[in-house]
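Lab notebook, design round three. We kept the backbone fixed and only want residue identities now. Task for the bench partner: fill in a sequence for the structure below.
Input C-alpha coordinates:
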Protein backbone atom coordinates (compact mmCIF):
# COMPACT_ATOMS: atom_id res chain seq x y z
CA UNK A 1 0.00 0.00 0.00
CA UNK A 2 1.45 3.40 -1.00
CA UNK A 3 2.22 6.16 1.51
CA UNK A 4 -0.74 8.20 0.25
CA UNK A 5 -3.20 5.40 0.80
CA UNK A 6 -1.69 4.59 4.18
CA UNK A 7 -2.07 8.17 5.32
CA UNK A 8 -5.66 8.15 4.06
CA UNK A 9 -6.35 5.03 6.06
CA UNK A 10 -4.90 6.57 9.20
CA UNK A 11 -6.90 9.79 8.82
CA UNK A 12 -10.19 8.10 7.98
CA UNK A 13 -9.73 5.43 10.64
CA UNK A 14 -9.64 7.81 13.49
CA UNK A 15 -12.26 10.26 12.10
CA UNK A 16 -34.14 -27.43 14.79
CA UNK A 17 -32.35 -29.51 16.75
CA UNK A 18 -34.48 -32.54 16.08
CA UNK A 19 -34.17 -36.09 17.22
CA UNK A 20 -33.68 -38.49 14.31
CA UNK A 21 -34.47 -42.18 14.55
CA UNK A 22 -31.86 -44.42 12.99
CA UNK A 23 -33.87 -47.32 11.70
CA UNK A 24 -31.33 -49.96 10.93
CA UNK A 25 -33.83 -52.80 11.47
CA UNK A 26 -32.95 -56.40 11.18
CA UNK A 27 -31.87 -57.03 7.63
CA UNK A 28 -31.20 -60.50 6.32
CA UNK A 29 -27.55 -61.40 6.03
CA UNK A 30 -28.02 -62.56 2.46
CA UNK A 31 -29.48 -60.50 -0.35
CA UNK A 32 -32.79 -61.81 -1.54
CA UNK A 33 -32.33 -60.34 -4.98
CA UNK A 34 -32.60 -63.33 -7.26
CA UNK A 35 -33.70 -63.53 -10.83
CA UNK A 36 -34.62 -66.83 -12.49
CA UNK A 37 -34.97 -67.06 -16.21
CA UNK A 38 -35.47 -69.97 -18.57
CA UNK A 39 -34.02 -69.22 -21.96
CA UNK A 40 -36.19 -70.98 -24.51
CA UNK A 41 -38.88 -73.55 -24.04
CA UNK A 42 -36.71 -76.67 -23.94
CA UNK A 43 -36.19 -78.31 -20.54
CA UNK A 44 -33.00 -79.98 -19.39
CA UNK A 45 -32.86 -83.78 -19.01
CA UNK A 46 -32.82 -83.29 -15.24
CA UNK A 47 -36.03 -81.29 -15.44
CA UNK A 48 -37.65 -83.85 -17.72
CA UNK A 49 -37.04 -86.50 -15.10
CA UNK A 50 -37.97 -84.24 -12.18
CA UNK A 51 -40.32 -86.86 -10.93
CA UNK A 52 -37.37 -88.69 -9.33
CA UNK A 53 -35.03 -85.69 -8.80
CA UNK A 54 -35.49 -82.99 -6.12
CA UNK A 55 -34.10 -79.47 -6.56
CA UNK A 56 -31.33 -78.29 -4.24
CA UNK A 57 -29.70 -75.03 -3.14
CA UNK A 58 -26.30 -73.36 -3.33
CA UNK A 59 -24.81 -70.87 -0.89
CA UNK A 60 -21.40 -69.40 -0.20
CA UNK A 61 -19.37 -66.34 0.73
CA UNK A 62 -17.44 -63.82 -1.38
CA UNK A 63 -14.19 -62.53 0.13
CA UNK A 64 -11.15 -60.60 -1.05
CA UNK A 65 -7.53 -61.72 -0.83
CA UNK A 66 -7.22 -60.47 2.74
CA UNK A 67 -10.23 -62.53 3.83
CA UNK A 68 -12.55 -59.54 4.20
CA UNK A 69 -16.08 -60.06 2.98
CA UNK A 70 -17.16 -58.41 -0.29
CA UNK A 71 -20.69 -57.02 -0.20
CA UNK A 72 -22.66 -56.26 -3.34
CA UNK A 73 -20.82 -58.70 -5.59
CA UNK A 74 -22.98 -59.97 -8.44
CA UNK A 75 -23.21 -63.78 -8.78
CA UNK A 76 -24.70 -65.44 -11.87
CA UNK A 77 -25.60 -69.13 -11.69
CA UNK A 78 -25.66 -70.99 -15.02
CA UNK A 79 -26.74 -74.61 -15.49
CA UNK A 80 -24.77 -76.98 -17.66
CA UNK A 81 -27.06 -76.50 -20.65
CA UNK A 82 -26.98 -72.71 -20.23
CA UNK A 83 -30.77 -72.62 -20.36
CA UNK A 84 -31.39 -71.93 -16.67
CA UNK A 85 -29.87 -68.85 -15.03
CA UNK A 86 -30.23 -67.23 -11.64
CA UNK A 87 -28.67 -64.04 -10.32
CA UNK A 88 -28.05 -62.83 -6.78
CA UNK A 89 -25.94 -60.27 -4.89
CA UNK A 90 -23.76 -60.91 -1.85
CA UNK A 91 -25.14 -59.41 1.35
CA UNK A 92 -23.40 -57.25 3.92
CA UNK A 93 -21.72 -60.37 5.28
CA UNK A 94 -20.55 -61.40 1.80
CA UNK A 95 -22.95 -64.36 1.61
CA UNK A 96 -25.18 -65.35 -1.29
CA UNK A 97 -27.90 -68.00 -1.69
CA UNK A 98 -29.63 -69.75 -4.58
CA UNK A 99 -32.74 -71.86 -3.99
CA UNK A 100 -34.66 -74.30 -6.22
CA UNK A 101 -31.60 -75.13 -8.26
CA UNK A 102 -31.95 -78.01 -10.74
CA UNK A 103 -29.44 -80.75 -9.89
CA UNK A 104 -26.50 -81.21 -12.21
CA UNK A 105 -23.34 -79.39 -13.22
CA UNK A 106 -23.38 -75.61 -12.68
CA UNK A 107 -21.11 -72.59 -12.93
CA UNK A 108 -20.97 -69.40 -10.84
CA UNK A 109 -19.69 -66.17 -12.41
CA UNK A 110 -18.79 -63.44 -9.88
CA UNK A 111 -18.16 -59.79 -10.69
CA UNK A 112 -17.60 -56.78 -8.41
CA UNK A 113 -16.28 -53.27 -8.96
CA UNK A 114 -12.51 -53.07 -8.42
CA UNK A 115 -12.01 -56.86 -8.59
CA UNK A 116 -11.12 -59.32 -11.30
CA UNK A 117 -14.03 -61.47 -12.54
CA UNK A 118 -14.04 -64.98 -10.99
CA UNK A 119 -15.74 -68.27 -11.87
CA UNK A 120 -16.55 -71.39 -9.87
CA UNK A 121 -17.80 -74.74 -11.17
CA UNK A 122 -19.44 -77.60 -9.33
CA UNK A 123 -22.08 -80.33 -9.39
CA UNK A 124 -25.30 -80.19 -7.39
CA UNK A 125 -26.91 -83.49 -6.41
CA UNK A 126 -30.59 -84.13 -5.98
CA UNK A 127 -31.95 -82.35 -2.89
CA UNK A 128 -28.46 -81.23 -1.82
CA UNK A 129 -27.68 -78.03 0.07
CA UNK A 130 -24.29 -77.18 -1.41
CA UNK A 131 -22.19 -74.81 0.72
CA UNK A 132 -19.31 -73.94 -1.59
CA UNK A 133 -15.93 -72.89 -0.26
CA UNK A 134 -15.32 -69.12 0.09
CA UNK A 135 -14.76 -67.58 -3.32
CA UNK A 136 -11.76 -65.25 -3.32
CA UNK A 137 -11.73 -62.20 -5.60
CA UNK A 138 -8.44 -60.68 -6.68
CA UNK A 139 -8.03 -56.93 -6.94
CA UNK A 140 -8.27 -55.72 -10.54
CA UNK A 141 -4.86 -55.01 -12.01
CA UNK A 142 -5.95 -52.44 -14.60
CA UNK A 143 -8.04 -50.02 -12.59
CA UNK A 144 -7.73 -46.36 -13.48
CA UNK A 145 -8.30 -44.13 -10.46
CA UNK A 146 -9.16 -40.51 -11.18
CA UNK A 147 -8.80 -38.04 -8.33
CA UNK A 148 -10.27 -34.59 -8.75
CA UNK A 149 -8.63 -32.04 -6.46
CA UNK A 150 -8.41 -28.27 -6.24
CA UNK A 151 -4.97 -26.84 -7.02
CA UNK A 152 -3.24 -24.25 -4.78
CA UNK A 153 -3.61 -21.70 -7.59
CA UNK A 154 -7.38 -22.18 -7.66
CA UNK A 155 -7.61 -21.85 -3.88
CA UNK A 156 -5.54 -18.66 -3.94
CA UNK A 157 -7.75 -17.28 -6.71
CA UNK A 158 -10.85 -17.73 -4.57
CA UNK A 159 -9.13 -16.08 -1.62
CA UNK A 160 -8.11 -13.10 -3.78
CA UNK A 161 -11.74 -12.62 -4.85
CA UNK A 162 -12.64 -12.23 -1.18
CA UNK A 163 -9.78 -9.81 -0.53
CA UNK A 164 -10.80 -7.66 -3.50
CA UNK A 165 -14.17 -7.05 -1.80
CA UNK A 166 -12.57 -5.71 1.37
CA UNK A 167 -13.13 -1.96 1.65
CA UNK A 168 -12.73 0.14 4.77
CA UNK A 169 -15.98 2.02 5.41
CA UNK A 170 -17.19 0.42 2.18
CA UNK A 171 -14.94 2.66 0.06
CA UNK A 172 -11.18 2.49 0.81
CA UNK A 173 -9.54 -0.57 -0.81
CA UNK A 174 -8.03 -2.96 1.73
CA UNK A 175 -6.86 -5.65 -0.67
CA UNK A 176 -3.48 -6.42 0.90
CA UNK A 177 -4.80 -7.95 4.12
CA UNK A 178 -5.83 -11.58 4.54
CA UNK A 179 -7.87 -12.78 7.49
CA UNK A 180 -7.03 -16.42 6.76
CA UNK A 181 -3.99 -17.39 8.89
CA UNK A 182 -2.80 -20.07 6.48
CA UNK A 183 -3.79 -18.35 3.23
CA UNK A 184 -2.33 -19.99 0.14
CA UNK A 185 0.73 -18.16 -1.30
CA UNK A 186 0.10 -16.16 -4.47
CA UNK A 187 1.84 -16.91 -7.73
CA UNK A 188 3.42 -14.13 -9.77
CA UNK A 189 0.34 -13.60 -11.93
CA UNK A 190 -1.85 -13.18 -8.87
CA UNK A 191 0.57 -10.71 -7.27
CA UNK A 192 0.42 -8.53 -10.39
CA UNK A 193 -3.35 -8.99 -10.55
CA UNK A 194 -3.72 -7.62 -7.01
CA UNK A 195 -1.34 -4.74 -7.74
CA UNK A 196 -3.21 -3.69 -10.89
CA UNK A 197 -6.49 -3.97 -9.03
CA UNK A 198 -5.13 -1.46 -6.49
CA UNK A 199 -3.64 1.11 -8.86
CA UNK A 200 -6.71 1.00 -11.15
CA UNK A 201 -9.23 1.29 -8.33
CA UNK A 202 -11.44 4.41 -8.55
CA UNK A 203 -10.61 5.37 -4.97
CA UNK A 204 -6.90 5.50 -5.88
CA UNK A 205 -7.60 8.16 -8.51
CA UNK A 206 -9.86 10.07 -6.13
CA UNK A 207 -7.24 10.01 -3.38
CA UNK A 208 -4.37 11.02 -5.67
CA UNK A 209 -6.55 13.75 -7.14
CA UNK A 210 -7.38 15.08 -3.68
CA UNK A 211 -3.71 15.05 -2.66
CA UNK A 212 -2.77 16.94 -5.84
CA UNK A 213 -5.38 19.54 -5.04
CA UNK A 214 -3.99 20.05 -1.54
CA UNK A 215 -0.46 20.34 -2.93
CA UNK A 216 -1.57 22.95 -5.44
CA UNK A 217 -3.44 24.91 -2.82
CA UNK A 218 -0.30 24.96 -0.64
CA UNK A 219 1.85 25.62 -3.72
CA UNK A 220 4.03 22.55 -3.22
CA UNK A 221 6.38 21.81 -6.10
CA UNK A 222 6.30 25.42 -7.26
CA UNK A 223 7.98 24.68 -10.57
CA UNK A 224 4.85 22.83 -11.64
CA UNK A 225 3.03 26.14 -11.61
CA UNK A 226 -0.69 26.67 -11.09
CA UNK A 227 -3.84 26.20 -13.12
CA UNK A 228 -4.87 23.03 -14.92
CA UNK A 229 -1.34 22.37 -16.15
CA UNK A 230 0.14 22.58 -12.67
CA UNK A 231 -2.60 20.38 -11.23
CA UNK A 232 -2.06 17.81 -14.00
CA UNK A 233 1.67 17.61 -13.23
CA UNK A 234 1.03 17.18 -9.51
CA UNK A 235 -1.58 14.50 -10.20
CA UNK A 236 0.78 12.64 -12.58
CA UNK A 237 3.61 12.77 -10.04
CA UNK A 238 1.39 11.51 -7.22
CA UNK A 239 -0.02 8.71 -9.36
CA UNK A 240 3.52 7.84 -10.49
CA UNK A 241 4.51 7.35 -6.85
CA UNK A 242 1.50 5.10 -6.29
CA UNK A 243 2.12 3.13 -9.48
CA UNK A 244 5.84 2.49 -8.96
CA UNK A 245 5.51 1.86 -5.22
CA UNK A 246 2.74 -0.68 -5.69
CA UNK A 247 4.13 -2.48 -8.73
CA UNK A 248 7.71 -2.70 -7.47
CA UNK A 249 7.04 -3.31 -3.76
CA UNK A 250 3.95 -5.52 -4.11
CA UNK A 251 4.35 -7.33 -7.44
CA UNK A 252 7.78 -7.26 -9.11
CA UNK A 253 10.04 -7.80 -6.08
CA UNK A 254 7.65 -10.22 -4.31
CA UNK A 255 7.60 -12.29 -7.51
CA UNK A 256 11.39 -12.28 -7.87
CA UNK A 257 12.08 -12.83 -4.16
CA UNK A 258 9.13 -15.21 -3.66
CA UNK A 259 7.57 -13.18 -0.85
CA UNK A 260 3.94 -12.56 0.04
CA UNK A 261 3.05 -8.83 -0.07
CA UNK A 262 -0.03 -9.20 2.19
CA UNK A 263 -0.47 -8.55 5.90
CA UNK A 264 -1.60 -11.70 7.73
CA UNK A 265 -4.09 -10.61 10.38
CA UNK A 266 -3.33 -12.19 13.77
CA UNK A 267 -6.46 -11.37 15.76
CA UNK A 268 -5.66 -13.63 18.74
CA UNK A 269 -3.51 -13.40 21.83
CA UNK A 270 -2.81 -10.57 24.22
CA UNK A 271 -2.86 -6.99 23.03
CA UNK A 272 0.89 -6.63 23.57
CA UNK A 273 1.74 -9.67 21.44
CA UNK A 274 -0.59 -8.50 18.69
CA UNK A 275 0.93 -5.03 18.72
CA UNK A 276 4.48 -6.41 18.51
CA UNK A 277 3.37 -8.72 15.70
CA UNK A 278 1.92 -5.79 13.74
CA UNK A 279 5.04 -3.64 14.18
CA UNK A 280 7.37 -6.52 13.25
CA UNK A 281 5.43 -7.06 10.03
CA UNK A 282 6.73 -3.75 8.73
CA UNK A 283 10.16 -5.37 8.30
CA UNK A 284 9.30 -9.09 8.01
CA UNK A 285 6.87 -11.00 5.83
CA UNK A 286 5.85 -14.51 4.89
CA UNK A 287 7.66 -16.12 2.02
CA UNK A 288 5.97 -18.29 -0.58
CA UNK A 289 7.43 -21.20 1.41
CA UNK A 290 5.25 -20.02 4.38
CA UNK A 291 8.30 -19.11 6.47
CA UNK A 292 8.88 -15.68 7.99
CA UNK A 293 11.75 -13.69 6.50
CA UNK A 294 13.01 -10.09 6.16
CA UNK A 295 10.64 -8.02 4.03
CA UNK A 296 13.15 -7.13 1.32
CA UNK A 297 10.31 -6.40 -1.10
CA UNK A 298 8.88 -3.55 0.98
CA UNK A 299 12.25 -2.06 1.95
CA UNK A 300 13.82 -2.21 -1.51
CA UNK A 301 10.53 -1.20 -3.12
CA UNK A 302 10.43 2.02 -1.08
CA UNK A 303 14.01 2.85 -2.06
CA UNK A 304 13.40 2.08 -5.74
CA UNK A 305 10.22 4.13 -5.88
CA UNK A 306 11.95 7.08 -4.25
CA UNK A 307 14.81 6.86 -6.72
CA UNK A 308 12.48 6.73 -9.73
CA UNK A 309 10.58 9.80 -8.49
CA UNK A 310 13.71 11.87 -9.14
CA UNK A 311 12.94 11.51 -12.85
CA UNK A 312 9.75 13.55 -12.73
CA UNK A 313 9.77 15.80 -9.67
CA UNK A 314 11.13 19.36 -10.05
CA UNK A 315 14.89 19.62 -9.69
CA UNK A 316 14.71 21.53 -6.43
CA UNK A 317 12.40 18.92 -4.93
CA UNK A 318 14.23 15.79 -6.01
CA UNK A 319 15.36 13.42 -3.33
CA UNK A 320 19.06 12.95 -2.86
CA UNK A 321 20.42 9.62 -1.70
CA UNK A 322 20.21 10.61 1.96
CA UNK A 323 16.65 11.87 1.62
CA UNK A 324 15.65 8.73 -0.28
CA UNK A 325 16.81 6.53 2.61
CA UNK A 326 15.12 8.87 5.07
CA UNK A 327 11.83 8.59 3.20
CA UNK A 328 12.20 4.80 3.07
CA UNK A 329 12.54 4.76 6.86
CA UNK A 330 9.45 6.94 7.15
CA UNK A 331 7.67 4.53 4.82
CA UNK A 332 8.54 1.58 7.07
CA UNK A 333 7.26 3.50 10.07
CA UNK A 334 4.04 4.25 8.21
CA UNK A 335 3.68 0.56 7.45
CA UNK A 336 3.99 -0.26 11.15
CA UNK A 337 1.27 2.26 12.05
CA UNK A 338 -0.99 0.92 9.30
CA UNK A 339 -0.45 -2.64 10.55
CA UNK A 340 -1.47 -1.58 14.07
CA UNK A 341 -4.67 -0.12 12.63
CA UNK A 342 -5.22 -3.32 10.66
CA UNK A 343 -4.82 -5.43 13.78
CA UNK A 344 -7.03 -3.42 16.14
CA UNK A 345 -9.41 -1.19 14.16
CA UNK A 346 -9.74 -1.62 10.42
CA UNK A 347 -11.32 -5.07 10.55
CA UNK A 348 -14.25 -3.58 12.47
CA UNK A 349 -14.67 -0.98 9.72
CA UNK A 350 -14.51 -3.48 6.84
CA UNK A 351 -18.01 -4.80 5.98
CA UNK A 352 -17.11 -7.70 3.68
CA UNK A 353 -14.79 -10.23 5.23
CA UNK A 354 -14.18 -13.96 4.80
CA UNK A 355 -15.68 -15.67 7.86
CA UNK A 356 -15.21 -19.20 6.47
CA UNK A 357 -12.81 -21.67 8.10
CA UNK A 358 -9.24 -21.54 6.95
CA UNK A 359 -8.39 -23.64 3.93
CA UNK A 360 -6.24 -26.73 4.65
CA UNK A 361 -2.60 -26.29 3.76
CA UNK A 362 -1.70 -27.43 0.23
CA UNK A 363 1.88 -28.41 -0.55
CA UNK A 364 4.30 -25.41 -0.41
CA UNK A 365 5.07 -23.85 -3.77
CA UNK A 366 8.56 -24.28 -5.04
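Proposed sequence:
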Amino acid sequence: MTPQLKCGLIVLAFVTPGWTSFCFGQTPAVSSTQQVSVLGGEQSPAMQSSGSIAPGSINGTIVDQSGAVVAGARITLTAENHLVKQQASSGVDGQFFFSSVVPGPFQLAITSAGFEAQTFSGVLHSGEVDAVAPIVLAVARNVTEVQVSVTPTEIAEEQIKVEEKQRVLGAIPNFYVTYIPNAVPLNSKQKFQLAWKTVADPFTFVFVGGSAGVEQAQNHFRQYGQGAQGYGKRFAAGYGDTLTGTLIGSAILPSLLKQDPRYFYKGTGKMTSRALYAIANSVICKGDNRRWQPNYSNILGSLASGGISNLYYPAQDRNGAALTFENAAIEIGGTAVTNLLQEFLIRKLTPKLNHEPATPNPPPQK
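Keep this in mind before ordering anything: The chain has a mean pLDDT of 80.
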